[in-house]
């Protein structure tokens, strides 16, 4: 911003440059915005001299929009306060910054909000849209979401999903079912046989896959899960806490008449994500049960806080920051015509991190 007579002046505009060079705005734009259309050498020199004299600084965003895309990526998450989404977001922001691309983060907690957020994002014409949610398999908004993103890609944009591989777009994925089987086997091998299982919504793909993997291993090991021991914690710390508190108030947790597993009570909590596990640990203490001593606890995701809670949480490690980076790589990388290999795996095998919340019995 220039200063004249002690007063700040607005930055020079493209119109100011065109007027100073005595050329049309279109000519000035072709010179300064890197158009492939030829400009006479005399006009080119006049425009560049005028730009230097006026200290003109081109608007990078406007340049990119004029060429069809803005130098930005839009990232949509369902809950920015959730450490899982925060870690994925960190990976996206870091990878984009290394390439000179800015990131706008939007929060869309429901399929309807997600559809509206995608529509607004498309209007800004970003280089890419990364969706780190959209795992509700039966959401009525899915056909509209797919249509919006197909039109966006047809105009030159890139859409990438994190974890959701059920739409016809590239998807960063991990082996949910394999990780679930691994942690369930650890539960069984450690001597636990009376678990509470905290899952997500039934229509949520990650919850479905993790629950199926856990149940298969428990069934094969002869562990009959009490139907009342399966609760929906909605992949939320507060809901995981609430689910265990409800069981505690109903006398289901500790041994005694009316408790789960024919009065024997529970010996473990298998939470299908880390924040539910952390909420469950707080609720167990409120009911007189010490996590890692009276009740074993496992999570899924290995969010940064999982090693800091007490006792440290046994969990399935997911490379969250790497997942965000892989999504950016897909947005900015070359995509071959007719390439059907949409899945981007950043983890070939599950890594179960054994910590103090699951001692051997």
Note the topology:
Layout: E1 3-4, E2 7-8, H1 14-21, H2 25-32, H3 41-53, H4 60-67, E3 70-77, H5 83-97, E4 102-107, H6 111-123, E5 126-132, H7 142-154, E6 158-162, E7 171-173, H8 176-189, E8 195-199, H9 205-220, E9 230-232, H10 237-249, E10 268-271, H11 274-286, E11 296-298, E12 315-317, H12 320-332, E13 343-345, E14 351-353
Parallel strand pairs: 3-4, 3-5, 5-6, 6-7, 7-13, 8-9, 8-10, 10-11
Antiparallel strand pairs: 1-2, 12-14
Please, how many helices?
Answer: 12
Overall pLDDT confidence: 88
Strand content: 15-25%
Domain count, please report it: 3
Describe the model.
By secondary structure, this protein is an alpha/beta fold. It has 3 domains: 3-58, lambda repressor-like DNA-binding domains (434 Repressor (Amino-terminal Domain)); 70-174 and 321-345, Response regulator (Rossmann fold), CATH 3.40.50.2300; 176-317, Response regulator (Rossmann fold, 3-Layer(aba) Sandwich), CATH 3.40.50. It is built from 12 helices and 14 strands. The chain has helices at 14-21, 25-32, 41-53, 60-67, 83-97, 111-123, 142-154, 176-189, 205-220, 237-249, 274-286, 320-332; strands spanning 3-4, 7-8, 70-77, 102-107, 126-132, 158-162, 171-173, 195-199, 230-232, 268-271, 296-298, 315-317, 343-345, 351-353. The protein has a 6-stranded parallel β-sheet with strand order 4-3-5-6-7-13, with helices on both faces. It has a 4-stranded parallel β-sheet with strand order 9-8-10-11, sandwiched between helices. The chain has a two-stranded antiparallel sheet with strand order 1-2. Helix 1 crosses helix 2 (25-32) and helix 10 runs parallel beside helix 11. The longest helix has 16 residues, at 205-220. It is elongated. The chain starts with a strand and ends in an 8-residue tail after the last strand. The model has no long low-confidence stretch (mean pLDDT 88). Residues 12-67 form the HTH lacI-type domain. InterPro entries: HTH_LacI, Lambda_DNA-bd_dom_sf, Peripla_BP/Lac1_sug-bd_dom, Peripla_BP_I. This is Substrate-binding domain-containing protein. One of its GO terms (molecular function) is transcription cis-regulatory region binding. It holds the Pfam family LacI.
């Amino acid at each position: 911003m220039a200063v004249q007579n002690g007063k700040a002046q607005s930055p020079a505009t493209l119109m100011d440059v065109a007027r100073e060079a005595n050329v049309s705005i279109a000519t000035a734009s072709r010179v300064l915005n890197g158009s492939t259309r030829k400009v006479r050498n005399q006009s080119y020199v006049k425009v560049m001299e005028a730009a230097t004299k006026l200290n003109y600084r081109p608007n990078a965003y406007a340049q990119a929009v004029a060429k069809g895309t803005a130098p930005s990526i839009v990232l949509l998450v369902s809950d920015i306060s959730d450490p899982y989404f925060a870690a994925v977001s960190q990976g996206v922001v870091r990878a984009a910054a290394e390439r000179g691309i800015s990131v706008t983060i939007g929060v869309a907690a429901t399929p309807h909000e997600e559809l509206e957020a995608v529509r607004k994002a498309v209007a800004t014409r970003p280089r890419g849209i990364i969706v780190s949610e959209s795992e509700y398999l039966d959401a009525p908004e899915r056909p509209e979401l797919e249509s919006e993103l197909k039109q966006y890609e047809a105009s030159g944009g890139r859409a990438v999903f994190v974890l959701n591989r059920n739409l016809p777009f590239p998807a960063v994925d991990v082996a949910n079912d394999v990780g679930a089987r691994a942690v369930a086997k650890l539960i069984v091998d450690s001597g636990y046989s009376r678990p509470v299982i905290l899952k997500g919504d039934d229509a949520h793909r990650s919850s479905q896959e993790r629950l199926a993997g856990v149940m298969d291993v428990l069934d094969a090991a002869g562990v009959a899960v009490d139907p009342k021991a399966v609760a929906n914690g909605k992949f939320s710390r507060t809901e995981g806490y609430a689910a265990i508190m409800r069981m505690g108030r109903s006398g289901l947790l500790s041994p005694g008449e009316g408790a789960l597993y024919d009065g024997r009570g529970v010996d473990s909590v298998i939470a299908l994500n880390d924040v539910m596990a952390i909420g469950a640990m707080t609720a167990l203490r409120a009911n007189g049960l010490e996590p890692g001593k009276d009740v074993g606890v496992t999570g899924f995701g290995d969010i940064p806080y999982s090693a800091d809670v007490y006792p440290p949480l046994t969990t399935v490690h997911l490379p969250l920051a790497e997942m965000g980076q892989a999504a950016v790589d897909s947005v900015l990388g070359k995509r071959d015509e007719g390439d059907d290999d949409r899945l981007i795996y950043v983890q070939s095998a599950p890594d179960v991190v054994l910590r103090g919340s699951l001692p051997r019995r």
